[in-house]
Fold this protein.
Amino acid sequence: MTQAVDAKHAGPSQTAQRIDFQTDPSRYRHWEIQVEGEVATLVMDVDEKAGLFEGYELKLNSYDLGVDIELADAVQRLRFEHPEVKVVLLRSGKDRVFCAGANIRMLASSSHALKVNFCKFTNETRNSIEDASAFSGQKYVTVVTGSCAGGGYELALATDYIILVDDGSSSVSLPELPLLAVLPGTGGLTRVTDKRRVRRDHADVFCTTEEGIKGRRAAEWRLVDEVAPNSKLETAVAARVREFAAASPRPAGIKGVAMAPLERRIAANSREYPHLSVEFDREARLATITLRGPDAPPPEGPEAMLAQGAAFWPLALARELDDAILDIRLNELEIAAIVFKSQGDPQSVLAYDAFLERHIEHWLAREVRLEWKRVLKRIDLTSRSLVTLIEPGSCFAGTIAELIFAADRSYMLIGQFSGDNRAPAMVVLGNVNVGDDLPMSNGLSRLATRFLGEPQSLEQASNAVGEELDAERAEALGLITFALDDIDWEDEIRVFLEERTSFSPDGLTGLEANLRFGGPETMETKIFARLTAWQNWIFQRPNAVGPEGALKRYGTGQKPAFDMART
Amino acid sequence: MTQAVDAKHAGPSQTAQRIDFQTDPSRYRHWEIQVEGEVATLVMDVDEKAGLFEGYELKLNSYDLGVDIELADAVQRLRFEHPEVKVVLLRSGKDRVFCAGANIRMLASSSHALKVNFCKFTNETRNSIEDASAFSGQKYVTVVTGSCAGGGYELALATDYIILVDDGSSSVSLPELPLLAVLPGTGGLTRVTDKRRVRRDHADVFCTTEEGIKGRRAAEWRLVDEVAPNSKLETAVAARVREFAAASPRPAGIKGVAMAPLERRIAANSREYPHLSVEFDREARLATITLRGPDAPPPEGPEAMLAQGAAFWPLALARELDDAILDIRLNELEIAAIVFKSQGDPQSVLAYDAFLERHIEHWLAREVRLEWKRVLKRIDLTSRSLVTLIEPGSCFAGTIAELIFAADRSYMLIGQFSGDNRAPAMVVLGNVNVGDDLPMSNGLSRLATRFLGEPQSLEQASNAVGEELDAERAEALGLITFALDDIDWEDEIRVFLEERTSFSPDGLTGLEANLRFGGPETMETKIFARLTAWQNWIFQRPNAVGPEGALKRYGTGQKPAFDMART
């Protein structure tokens, strides 16, 4: 899953390794997917020798980023390759342990940036489970046998239903604070208070009790949904599977499409995908992602779409964009800003949007749109400055236009470049931009977030759907940040990017995390914006990561030494 | 404003100083209150030689905690001493500057704990301005003449209306990121996105532009409400004052009550107030706050309440509690937990609650309840473990019972202590506990937050209002964490407190900040829980506070050197 290239800070072991997010079940080391009719079982059986980096063993079903990359892949495949599945069981392949959570030696030896990005990705994977449940009707059930600790319990928390075996020893716990002086980093606290709505003093007891809670009290405190003695466990599981399967809205007898491996050419300063290119300007610390519009009209109908499968343009592009973003996040830490560009015909993009809209009741069309939703959310949560440049020859329309509104700033050329006879760039809004299909983590569309303070602008944007908007009109509608003519274009953007990339990366991360998500908060924004920020803070404090801190001293037999001043 | 006592880490200058939050206008060094009929003017004219600590000068109307202690006092006095005031103007007493924000040398030389607690207090002061506007009908108007930068603009953001003079140089700005590599620490980003709802890309430009925005663009981007040329400024101000005064719901011709100085006896290990005692067990790192119930029945009516003035029991106790909490926050950093106890007759407490309820339309009764709301919010936001012990002789009823629900955990004795003939403790709920008068920052009452996951428990609590609840009944209703008998009491609580105080203080701060505020988010929780957490993180990062960081190098002529890896 890793290959040596020149990427600094990537792994805990100081070995420069490129982390690859592409995998498939034939290569899994830690998970097994078993599908039987409408029920799938994801078996977690971590190979302790197969850590992503050197220097630690993944004992007791503990995990690192490599384990989670497989899980994310499995969740994705269940949606696309196994649409017949209505219930997914999450179980441990080990005897006395469900999952010990994130591997502590891995955390202790990781750079701050890796810890933070690891937590972000695991959070996104947990969210993808909740998304599958909410929008694809695949219900997840966790069967806890053995100890389910920390990140293990956080994984369970992301599922719809938790069954705990009542055997006198199996337990759920969040021992991060008492054991490691850090917080659960994968949404645990927020899901305890806001999803399971555990009473706050019970939550306090739970999160400060290293050994966790077992048996009936776990159910009484709403930490799990059901407890069953060993002898009745399988009966209880089967009953829940039947119940959830019967309630699932998924159509029966449908067949999935294979998620073929992505075609990629990885070079030192570029990544080339069929529909997308990434170019790195390492001196300027910029990555330019150019998305290419479709080169053929949409398929004639759902059957033709199914036949195209993973090659269906919107699906292929979404997967490529996702991979490119993850690559930059984990492997290109020095890149300060991502510049989005596009090439193609806006009307062709809109034709695909219209196709998806027309067939949105078809499971695959829905899954493709849901995939775009998740990829765009991933972009919103990427801690790099995001800039969209709208130039002649671009196709910022409909779904692709979301990249204008996901960006921290956007610039659009007025008219043509001197010596370039391509027609002036046009932005075209689609229903997808003004509707609710592609919400951000705050639950609002990007345009609704943008226009929180000016509802009339949202209405004007709705009225402009389908219209070809030149730079001045787009600026007047508030859709872009600045419209510039050819004379100013190059200098203004160069100066802006030079200034931007000179700022403190930490300060920018905090600034962007605040400015991108105005308006309402949801469980997701609480997890990413609140819990994560506290966790990041604690991950920097000597009480956790200093030479005498709890993370460093874990397993040494020595107790950590804390500076006891409260902040 | 400071006096030398033994308090570590308190100030940036390493001098051990006790920070005192009590002041009055005769002692102000930085502010002036001018009251003319229904209009008050708060003039900020910072004495640069009168910093709270040594080592910096408060140039250009920059501020430190001492300046903000005076502002908080002034806002409070305007409500209690000048209820006739309907509009408050905020103006600068300096010529070319409105306010340069928090003093940078002070920040650069402050301990992390002081920086964080300084920001928290300034946030609470800004919130108290918004509270006065929303609930006391005192509208705040900022008149910006000169440069209004960073914390200066954040102060303006807390007011209802901002008028900016359009003189070619006066401007508003949040230069923290470009200048200092940190974030605005007093709610600036959240108020820009959520209160003024500035478009996110405009906010991005604004927050990365060191020199800020002036003139018409500031109004077009909603950063200010109005711009006026110099020649028309006073006319514009007068027009707004008339408009807001005419719309104010405040009754005319009422006279305030004097906020007499608090009586306090400060000793090495205790603080003694008329209605409250604080005892420090420094070895155990505990502060025990004992609140005492009233020793006389409530006054006969509003006139008698006015005659009692600051001696009116609920008002006196609220002010004492507020002072005690702030003292612990800033001067007692090694104290890990605050233990709340009470002494008195529950029915007497309820009689005062009933008095306030009966006269809630009277301005003073309303102000007293609003003061309790603010003090309890301050407790919710205090980064120490909060524990309430309910023992025989206590008076946890009505308003005082909120301390049970504000605590991270509560313990109640079943029956009597051996050898103690006082009657068993009883908790008595009042309307104030089950209503909406004392919301937390999340907008919900403490009981509604507690029972997010079990609405039936909230209803049961409502049905139990007025009932004397013994420990077992209180536990059954979910109002306390644990009911213990005499045999277990001492050991259980000792073991719990020993364990609690052995945990990492940083981890506890993050844990409690997450568990205390389940449910909805508001602008306040966004500021305290999200923006603050990011700011805390950045305040720890070498890019800000390291030897080559921006805070350290500010003013040296040397540019900061950043580690450019994004996190």
Remarks:
- Residues 1-15 of chain B have pLDDT under 50 and may be disordered.
- Chain B has 23 helices and 24 strands.
